[in-house]
Amino acid sequence: MKKARMILDRDYAIGRIDRRLYGSFIEHLGRAVYGGIYEPDHPTADRHGFRRDVIDLVRRLDVPVVRYPGGNFVSGFNWEDSIGPRDRRPKRLDLAWATTETNEVGLHEFVDWARDANSEVMYAVNLGTRGPDAARNIVEYSNHRGGTQWSDLRIKNGAKEPFNIKLWCLGNEMDGPWQMGQKTAYEYGRVASEAGKMMKLVDSGIELVACGSSSLTMPTFGAWEYEVLDQCYDQVDYVSIHRYYGNSTGDTPGFLARSMDMNEFIKTVVAICDAVGGKKHSRKKLMLSFDEWNVWYHSNAQDREIVKRNKWGVALPLLEDIYNFEDALLVGSMLITMLRNADRVKIACMAQLVNVIAPIMTRNGGGAWAQTIYWPLMHASRYGRGTALRPIVQSPAYDCSDYTDVPLLDATATLGDDGSLTIFAVNRDLEEDIELTCDLRAFGELRPAEHILLHHDDVKAVNTEDQPDTVSPQKGGHGKVDGGYFTIRVPALSWNVIRLEKAE
After folding, report:
1. Which DSSP symbol is given to 95?
2. Per DSSP, what are the bridge partners of residue 281?
3. Is the pLDDT of residue 79 over 80?
């Protein structure tokens, strides 16, 4: 059996973990809204038309923030279309996804849903086909108490109390040629600066996210971030990063190493932020919002055919990736990577939440179930709170198609406010278990509390409506503590949550 070592110390702290690290994303795309969170004719629907079975699954995830309403959708969206009586709301062509948007679910409805889901709204404004004026107006509508045109209209539309949306995205992926209203870095930086300035004049308590590059592979990556932040650094609080991974070639070892790419991406963007801050002699340290991340590749060919057959249809079943077990392993490593960078990555949104590249799937009129990727996100959200620690890990390594010296054991740890310790670990070895020994002498007397294990013999195993528990958490071996050292067996190809608590 291979062996790995980990040294942990409460003084080796990365920083406090922002609860919003475990956010998600709902875009007006596919069946995320219609057929996902909202289905008035469903047996579980409440009086507002929201599916209670979906709400229950979302609550179990403990998602603190949900980005809305896009995504690419937002760059052609008029926010005013989504307020007022439903029967007067216009239907619009959504150019981003070649569908028709009915606006049946709008701002008020989504705010109500988010509150019911124990979450907060992270709202994206349109800086593609709209601009600063529309952006400041929706802040006034949402957050101003009353006595003005837009705040009084909110009250007239049934919401006496302000929504108090505190986190706002300044557009979406504005560097992309697929984006409505695509801009150069300078153009976007200027409009983001002016929009952000006006929005904060309306409500000084909000936080703003500027658009970074839509992908690490964009030819303008790096230069885009620098130019954008050079224009709007003083107005914004975060810069966004987006990253998706696929395994179209069936290369499991290479696929499971993609979190190394994610780590490099984070470090590079942090360096650019600090370079701009240094140039401006600013004392402000810009943070990162990883507000789109996931595995995404299964549905690509299928989507082209769906749009070809039914262009301008309503709530087409787009981007409905069916996730397998190896996808869950990479998601676990991506969560570990974000925890390792918790000093600068403060917000993250798994894209998306329901049906669309999502941890939760539904059938119209039928059931709702957890996909394989649901479980690592739930475990991290539930137990990855408090302080992120910087462990020293010694692990056997392997080489693959794109990387060398990939640790077979990908692991990190968090220290809870109650003194409990949680170790998150992915064993990337396809065949062999790893014996992990952890030096915990700095924490006093600890005892094993729980070992949650996600494992399946088939890396392509999936969950379905009929078999929702094919890939689901199991109880693992608790391991043992001896003289301040903790030893546990980590099975091959597995996601592990190892919890230790103070001994009585």
Report:
1. T
2. none
3. yes
- Cα(76)–Cα(73) distance, rounded to whole angstroms? 6
How do residues 8-50 score in pLDDT, each as one tens digit?
Answer: 999 999 999 999 999 999 999 999 999 999 999 999 999 999 9
For residue range 345-384, list pLDDT tens digits in order.
Answer: 999 999 999 999 999 999 999 999 999 999 999 999 999 9
**What is the H or E stretch that residue 333 is in?**
helix 325-340
Is residue 504 scored above 80 in pLDDT?
A: no
Q: How would residue 280 be classed by pLDDT, with cut points 50, 70 and 90?
A: very high
3-state secondary structure of 41: coil
Selecting among 173, 194, 320, 326, the annotated active-site residue is 173
pLDDT tier, 319 (very low <50, low <70, confident <90, very high otherwise): very high
Q: Can you tell me the distance from the alpha carbon of 11 to that of 73, in angstroms, rounded to the nearest whole number? A: 44
- Please pick, among 101, 109, 140, 292, the residue that the annotation labels catalytic: 292
pLDDT of the residue at 503: 86
Residue 27 annotated in active site: no
d(CA 424, CA 392): 14
Domains and CATH numbers, the chain: 2-9+388-502 (2.60.40.1180), 18-180+239-247+285-383 (3.20.20.80)
Rounded distance between C-alpha atoms, residue 374 and residue 243, angstroms? 18
User: What are the tens digits of pLDDT across the range 91-117?
Assistant: 999 999 999 999 999 999 999 999 999
Contacts for 393-401: CB closer than 8 Å, 24+ residues apart:
393/4, 393/5, 393/6, 394/4, 394/5, 394/6, 395/4, 395/5, 395/434, 396/2, 396/3, 396/4, 396/429, 396/434, 398/253, 398/428, 400/251, 400/253, 400/254, 400/257, 401/251, 401/253, 401/254
Range list of H helices, 144-211: 149-156, 185-202
Instruction: Write b or e for each residue in 486-502: b if 16 or more Cβ atoms lie within 10 A of its Cβ, otherwise e.
Output: bebebbbbbbbbbbbbe
Summarised one tens digit per residue, pLDDT across range 322-341 is: 999 999 999 999 999 999 99
Two tokens, residue 435: 């014996």
- C-alpha 180/C-alpha 18 separation (Å) is 32
- Residue 478 has a pLDDT of 82
Pairing type for strands 92-94 and 99-101 reads: antiparallel
Tell me which DSSP letter residue 466 carries: S
Nearest to 352, CA basis, from 329, 321, 327, 381? 321
**Residue 287 three-state SS:** strand
- How far is 253 from 403, CA to CA, in rounded Å? 10
Which residue, 490, 343, 329, 349, is CA-closest to 423?
490
Query: For this structure, is 173 an active site residue?
Result: yes
Q: What is the C-alpha separation between 287 and 127, in angstroms, rounded?
A: 21
Both structure tokens of 70 = 């896009």
Give Cα separations from 460 to 133, 325, 402, 465 (angstroms). Answer: 49, 6, 22, 17
Q: Which residue has the tokens 């007022």?
A: 84
